[in-house]
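pipeline stage [seq->struct] | target=Aminotransferase class V-fold PLP-dependent enzyme | organism=Mucilaginibacter angelicae | residues=396
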Amino acid sequence: MKNILSEQEIQQLRAETRGTAKTIHFNNAGSSLPPDVVVDTVIDYLYEEAQSGGYETEYTYREELENTYSLIARLINARKDEIAVLENASIGWWLAFNGIDFKPGDEIITCEMEYVTNLIGLLHAKKTYGIEFKVIPNDEQGNFQLEAFEEAIGPKTKLIAVTHIPSTAGGMIPVVEIGQIARKHNILYLLDACQSAGHVPLDVQEIGCDMLAVTGRKYLRAPRGTGFLYVRKEIQDKLKLFFMDGFTTQWVTETDFKPRDDARRFEVYEKSRALTLGLGKAVEYALNIGVDRTWQRIQYLAGLLRGKLKDVKGITAHDFGNELCGIVTFSVDGIDAATVKNKLAEKSINVSVGKAVSTLIYMNKNQLSNIVRASVHYYNTEEEVEILCGVLEEMV
């Protein structure tokens, strides 16, 4: 597993990322260090806009902008007309979720790992539409209970909405198996893949989801303010639209209009073309390396970090389950998570604090108020893992 990416490749990838020379970055679940080519793509486009004009520059780069949709489709094995480019995963999730025609008494099934924005959406739907939602808890080993999940499905089940990789834990949800059950019962399936894209290989055909929401800034290494929504072609007409402009319609008269016949009906016309181009470049960068290869590298580094943390007296690791990802969470005895983060920052080591509110059901269940989150990426090194653990050992 260690050699899926060669040492020479890793050094080349680091050389193509300016930030690695300055910072040990273990906050990739928050926002990764972008490759230089992504940064340069955005900046060069903005410079050209300033010199040639916004509309004129967009026309010059029309093929590259259009190719962003093709690249995203390749990344998740979808059709280009099933992709909408948006600002982030939360907007994508809310557009998909609130596009569903909920009725009083409808039921939604979710998991204990659901992100705060999605939980707010569920609570809002309960207040607004009179729906109910059931939470399937993980078992004592930290695994999603597929049998309990299928047993929870009833005649009123309208939607399955789960988060693939949570914000404040290193576990993962079995999204393919959930999809098989969703298809078996013919139930809509909405997947939050905010932490997944660029982290693990994603195939919407294999997963069987109807909708999938992604952000760009995390493991995809795209600019902040980018993301996308996948909506399966067959259900696009079933989702309500909340905001429409001339871009979202294919024709309009003085008395009627018709929405576009693709997923771009969920977009609006005005957005940053520079960021869209940057998103496309980041996706292309990930595809060129191979997400299957980088996923192996991430698993190796995360396993290395977890193993070393267990050897440090005074540190409690919190991740458990049969399949773990690149997010590593832990606590340091006698030192709150924010202080740990700040002390590491003094050594140019970036981590983040996972607050209870981010994954409220899971954190409350495990009586955690906050944790330290160190999230590794393929461009991190074994030496950086050693340095992090060394500083933590001194801290304890």
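stage status: PASS
auto-comment: The domain at 41-288 is CATH 3.40.640.10 (Aspartate Aminotransferase; domain 2). Residues 236 and 280 are 23 Å apart (CA to CA).
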